[in-house]
Structures are given as structure tokens and as C-alpha cells.
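TICKET: design request
STATUS: open
ATTACHED STRUCTURE:
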């Protein structure tokens, strides 16, 4: 069974799907058409780029293999956070401090962009401000406090320290030692947000085609350097192409595949909680992550209903580096939830789901032009094909900003896009057959390190 088959199974019991009203599906592509920009992937990155390009006057076509918001964009933990999946010193080591500061500023801009788009397109996505980063031990607390001091000094990023004595006012859990509160980050309902962006893109004239898997990409030499995307039902010829399908591209651009790995992530939603209990768990309503390398993340979600609404704990924390779904997923995740919140030890699980994120070797995002990854370079005729991948599980906000950056590049100003494209990435070791076992072994080391 391929990970795509596993992915379909993991999508079936999603809390997010159960709490949205999907519009009628967009038609599948069934003709040969042309446009200025063709986008592969109907997730947050592709939809964001489509909106930005339409605003700039481009004729845009978006091809989605399944449904808008199908992958990580519609099934993630819902946490929109400042920063990247890698530490800032990873960026500093490659680009220097000044450029690293510009990268950090763009991740803050990404959070503001969510608010702007929600206001512009009237997207009700249950946004709640605030994020808690919590340490599970004194050692990890010292590391977190050192990070806070460094980020404030070098990047001007203001957070509030929460001492062990103060922590019970922030979270009703015995598991944590101390932590940080970040007021800029927050959380939302990712499927509501994705569908809202799709609606906004369509209003701007973007042509959306769902159930339209791209089967091939080639340079159309006879049409002035354009690129053709082929599907089962038709084709799109475009002056520019954006590949925003991440691990779902599957053969469209094989040269990109060794640079990322599909990693399974899993979430549960509890049964409906009493409103007072839900409020007591995380009184500020913030999203929460621990600081382990293999981390747990959770939040209390509120969904409005005709009866007034319900409150549930959404808890994520297991990962699979082999793409195999863990056994007894709901039960094992409920146990993790109860270890964090003993008051939920008898609380049942109503939804359990998951999916695959695209991690890069160094956890930094991987943006660029396809031609730059080919031996023939610009001579390939694919210099006008851009790609966005490697968000590494930290993409809810950054994907939106990435779409804006690639739109700027296509429109003639590639300065901010090229800040990211200059980051160097290595293929995962082991080749196609061994890279997954090597990664599994490596992650076992980090799990042990988290326990120390």
C-alpha cells in the first residue's frame, strides 16, 4: 500500500471535514486550455498564490488532484505560528543574520496576512490568538529561556516568560515545568480557512479544477517558452507554472522528491466537553506545543452550532517516519491526552485522523525554480516553473506567505522569494530504498534525547 492509499484512509474521520459545509465540487479539467499561470495544488500555498496573482491581473488556473484543502492544508493541527520549523540559527548559518532577520519578519507578516485575508473574504475560521510553548523539565526550561532571550535580543520578538509558580494559571496540567506565551501566534479551523481562500480565489476569476491529477509536465518549445501540464482529461499551457503539491506531486517533478520526505502526523478530537471544563484546561484559549523534538501539540476548539456550539480538545502528538499508521491510533492518542490532562482520562475520542507533511532534511522551507535543480539548468526550458515545499509541519501561516512571495517573483520582483531559494538543501541519505529506514533510526535517537 502506498502512502497515498494510507492518506485516503486517514482523511475519513476528520473533525474538520465533519464541521464544514463543502460547496459543490469544481469541475475536472476536460479540455485543452491556456492561461498566464498554472498552479498545481489546491492547498494553502497554491490558493494564496492564485489570489495574489489574480490581484496582479494574471489569468490563473489551479489544478487540484482531489479536493481543495485535501492534504495538510485542511487536516493540520490548526496552529498558526511565527517562525519556521527549523531554528533561526539554521538560516543564519547559510544567509547571515541580516537575511535571517528578513526571513523572521516574513513569518510575522504571514500571521498578519491570515487576518487580512479573513477580513477581505469574510472567512469565519474560529481564530483564537495566543500560543504557549511549554517545557517539560528544568533542563528544557533553561533552553527555552535562552531561546527567548536570544530572539528578543536579535530579532525583537517579544514573548512573556511563565514561571513554574505562574503556570497553573495558564494550563491545568501537571506535565509541564514552565513556558512562554506568544500573543502574535494563534489557532484556527484550517479547513474553513482553506475553503474560504478557494471561494475568494474564485471570486477573483481564478479557474479551479478539482479531481484533476497532473500526469506530466513538459516545456512546449513551439509556444515561446510556455509549459504544458497534462491531466487525464485535458491540458493547460501556461507562461508560468507553480508546483505547490508537496509530497502529493508524485512523479510530476522527480528531481524534487529526494529533497523532502512524507511524514505521517495524527490528531484526535475528544467528545464534546462541558464548557466550564474546556475553559479550565487552557484558560487563555491559546494553542499549545511542548518543546520536545518529537512534540505534542493541542488546543481547545470551539465549533458554533444551531444549539450554541461545542468545545473539544484537539490533541496531536504521534508521528510516523515509515508512513505506516500506528496501531490503535485513537486509543494511544487518548492515552497521551490523558497523561497531559488527567481530568480527561475518562473522556472519549469522537474523531481521529491524520495525513502527511513534507519535511526537508534541515527542516527549512525549500522554495525555488525547477530549472535550478536540473543538470541542464535554464537550458531545460523550465526556468518559469516555480515550486514550494518543505514546510516541515510548520506551514499553516508560512504557506500563505510563500504564495505571496512566488507571485511577487512571477510579477518581476524576486528579491524576497530568492532569499528563500538561496537556502541549500540536501537529499535524504539512503536513496529511494534506504532513506526511510535511515530516518526512522535517526528519529529514535531524538525520542531518546527528549526523555533525558
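STATUS: resolved
RESOLUTION: sequence designed for all positions
ATTACHED SEQUENCE:
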Amino acid at each position: 500500500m502506498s502512502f497515498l492509499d494510507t492518506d485516503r484512509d486517514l482523511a475519513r474521520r476528520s473533525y474538520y471535514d465533519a464541521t464544514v459545509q463543502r460547496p459543490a465540487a469544481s469541475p475536472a479539467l476536460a479540455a485543452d486550455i491556456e492561461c498566464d499561470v498554472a498552479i498545481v495544488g489546491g492547498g494553502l500555498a497554491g490558493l494564496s498564490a492564485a489570489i495574489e496573482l489574480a490581484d496582479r491581473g494574471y489569468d490563473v488556473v489551479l489544478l487540484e488532484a482531489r479536493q481543495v484543502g485535501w492534504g495538510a492544508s485542511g487536516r493540520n493541527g490548526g496552529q498558526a505560528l511565527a517562525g519556521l520549523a527549523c531554528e533561526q540559527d539554521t538560516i543564519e548559518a547559510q544567509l547571515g543574520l541580516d537575511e535571517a532577520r528578513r526571513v523572521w519578519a516574513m513569518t510575522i507578516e504571514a500571521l498578519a496576512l491570515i487576518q487580512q485575508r479573513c477580513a477581505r473574504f469574510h472567512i469565519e475560521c474560529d481564530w483564537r490568538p495566543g500560543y504557549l510553548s511549554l517545557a517539560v523539565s528544568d533542563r528544557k526550561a533553561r533552553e527555552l529561556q535562552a531561546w527567548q532571550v536570544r530572539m528578543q535580543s536579535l530579532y525583537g520578538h517579544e514573548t512573556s516568560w511563565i514561571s513554574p509558580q505562574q503556570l497553573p494559571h495558564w494550563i491545568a496540567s501537571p506535565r509541564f515545568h514552565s513556558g512562554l506565551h506568544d500573543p502574535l501566534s494563534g489557532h484556527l479551523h484550517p479547513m474553513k480557512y482553506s475553503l474560504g481562500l478557494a471561494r475568494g480565489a474564485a471570486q477573483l476569476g481564478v479557474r479551479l479544477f478539482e479531481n484533476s491529477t497532473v500526469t506530466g509536465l513538459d516545456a512546449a518549445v513551439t509556444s515561446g517558452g510556455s509549459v504544458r501540464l497534462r491531466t487525464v482529461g485535458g491540458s493547460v499551457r501556461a507562461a508560468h507554472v507553480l508546483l505547490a503539491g508537496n509530497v502529493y506531486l508524485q512523479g510530476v517533478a522527480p528531481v524534487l522528491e529526494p529533497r523532502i520526505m512524507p511524514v505521517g502526523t495524527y490528531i484526535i478530537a475528544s467528545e464534546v466537553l462541558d464548557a466550564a471544563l474546556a475553559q479550565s484546561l487552557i484558560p487563555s484559549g491559546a494553542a499549545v506545543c511542548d518543546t520536545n523534538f518529537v512534540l505534542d501539540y493541542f488546543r481547545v476548539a470551539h465549533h458554533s452550532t444551531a444549539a450554541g456550539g461545542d468545545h473539544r480538545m484537539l490533541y496531536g502528538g504521534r508521528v510516523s517516519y515509515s508512513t505506516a499508521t500506528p496501531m490503535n491510533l485513537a486509543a494511544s492518542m487518548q492515552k497521551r491526552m490523558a497523561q497531559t490532562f488527567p481530568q480527561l482520562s475518562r473522556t472519549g475520542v469522537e474523531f481521529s485522523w491524520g495525513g502527511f507533511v513534507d519535511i526537508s532534511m534541515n527542516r527549512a522551507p525549500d522554495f525555488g525554480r525547477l530549472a535550478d535543480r536540473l543538470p541542464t539548468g535554464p537550458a531545460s526550458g523550465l526556468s518559469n516553473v516555480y515550486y514550494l515545499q518543505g514546510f516541515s509541519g510548520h506551514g499553516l501561516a508560512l504557506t500563505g506567505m510563500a504564495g505571496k512571495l512566488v507571485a511577487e517573483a512571477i510579477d518581476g520582483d524576486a528579491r524576497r522569494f530568492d532569499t528563500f531559494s538561496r537556502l541549500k538543501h540536501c537529499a535524504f541519505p539512503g536513496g529511494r530504498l534506504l532513506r526511510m529506514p535511515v530516518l526512522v533510526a535517526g528519529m529514535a535517537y531524538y525520542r531518546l534525547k527528549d526523555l533525558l
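CLOSING REMARK: The CA atoms of residues 108 and 231 lie 37 Å apart. The mean pLDDT is 92.
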